[in-house]
Design goal:
Layout (H helix, E strand, L loop, with lengths): L1 E4 L12 E5 L3 E6 L9 H7 L4 E4 L6 E3 H12 L4 E3 L7 E5 L3 E5 L1 H8 L4 E5 L4 E3 L4 E7 L3 E3 H12 L6 E4 L5 E7 L1 H4 L7 H11 L3 E8 L3 H13 L4 E5 L10 H6 L4 E5 L10 E5 L2 E6 L2 H4 L4 H10 L6 H5 L23
Parallel strand pairs: 14-15, 14-16, 16-19
Antiparallel strand pairs: 1-4, 2-3, 5-12, 6-7, 7-11, 8-10, 8-13, 9-11, 17-18, 18-19
Family: Belongs to the MoeA family.
EC number: 2.10.1.1
InterPro entries: MoaB/Mog-like_dom_sf, MoaB/Mog_dom, MoeA-like
Length: about 350
């Protein structure tokens, strides 16, 4: 810390906020801690009664917190993000569009293990809206050795994917097959279809076909093939997902040559969820809970598929940590622990 005349302070850095008081007009910080003094600031400082100020020594090899935060942010940020101007040493990351936040858990850990480096984010695969703040970064001291930031930049480059990005949900053509003899024969009204259609449209996609199918393997398979021929890029098969002998939806999907990823997910509700692929088209078998529970395994998995991600069994297995929904009286997902 050094005390110098205001007239000699251009290019130096303030170590504290400086308040300006103009009676009846303003009272508040005129210059913030970390502000780099410019020539035009000198008359203002003098008008505030500041003949001398305290600044940081200009030690070679040190960089200011604002520059450090900007460099950290640029190193971590991928597509779909906007970086705010530094404020009190912090840079915020804002979503440039709706989508899912993808984070590199290992990359964020590696950066935060560096002394005096901070990168805080929302959880991986968090649904975000345009304008949401999804992360923030800064360093602890006002001045930091540049070598620390250089190392952070190097670490970020070692990862194939960005440490942070927001991926948009692609417009997807979706087919729905509602199974069940009781629905097919009109004994009860189909309640599954409207729920699924509402979710699909909320994600910015469209339902191009909706079929009702009897509890018959061949019938279900024909319905799926017809929707594939119509150009469906995702197919949702609802109902008939339990282990009861007359629930044949899993059998129908598996026996039509689909690449089965999983039948079962460590998520409650949604344990009887099924994911398979026919070529690049994901087919999901949806248990009954999707019809009456506000949020299920389906809500955690379908948006990721709509970003273009191809999921593996391990991706589904990892959902177990945080996979318990608390069934709150008023659902506040995603602002809760579910799926985190």
């Amino acid at each position: 810390m050094e005390k110098i005349k205001v007239q000699d302070s251009v290019g130096t850095i303030l170590i504290h906020d400086m308040t300006q008081i103009i009676p009846g007009v303003v009272k508040g910080p005129r210059f913030r801690k970390g502000h780099v003094i410019k020539e035009e600031d000198i008359p203002v400082l003098l008008s505030m009664g500041k003949e001398h100020i305290f600044v940081w020594d200009q030690t070679p090899g040190l960089i200011h917190e604002n520059e450090a935060a900007q460099r950290l942010a640029r190193a971590a940020a991928g597509s779909g993000l906007l970086l705010d101007e530094p404020k009190e040493g912090k840079v915020s990351f804002t979503a440039d569009h709706d989508g899912l936040l993808y984070t590199s858990v290992d990359g964020i850990l590696a950066l935060n293990t560096l002394e005096n480096v901070i990168l805080s984010t929302l959880h991986n695969h968090y649904p975000v809206k345009k304008g949401d703040i999804v992360a923030g970064t800064r360093v602890v001291p006002l001045m930091i050795d540049e070598s620390v930031i250089i190392e952070a930049e190097r670490i970020a480059r070692t990862f194939t994917d960005p440490l942070l990005e927001v991926r948009p949900l692609k417009h997807t053509k979706v087919g729905i097959v509602t199974t069940g003899s009781e629905v097919f024969h009109g004994r009860i009204q189909d309640k599954f279809g409207p729920v699924l259609r509402a979710k699909v449209e909320n994600w910015g996609s469209e339902v191009i076909a909706h079929a009702l199918a009897n509890d018959d393997v061949d019938f279900i398979q024909r319905s799926i093939r017809e929707q594939l021929n119509q150009g469906a890029e995702m197919i949702l098969v609802s109902g008939g997902m339990s282990v009861d002998p007359d629930d044949v939806t899993p059998t129908a999907i598996k026996e039509m040559g689909a690449d089965l990823i999983t039948y079962g997910a460590p998520v409650l509700p949604g344990a009887m969820f099924l994911l398979a692929y026919i070529g690049d088209v994901p087919i999901m078998g949806l248990p009954g809970c999707v019809m009456y529970s506000k949020t299920t395994a389906f809500d955690l998995i379908a948006p990721r598929l709509m970003t273009g991600e191809r999921l593996t069994r391990m991706d589904i297995v990892k959902l177990g940590s945080g996979g318990l929904c608390l069934n709150c009286p008023v659902c506040i997902y995603p602002h809760c622990s579910f799926g985190k």
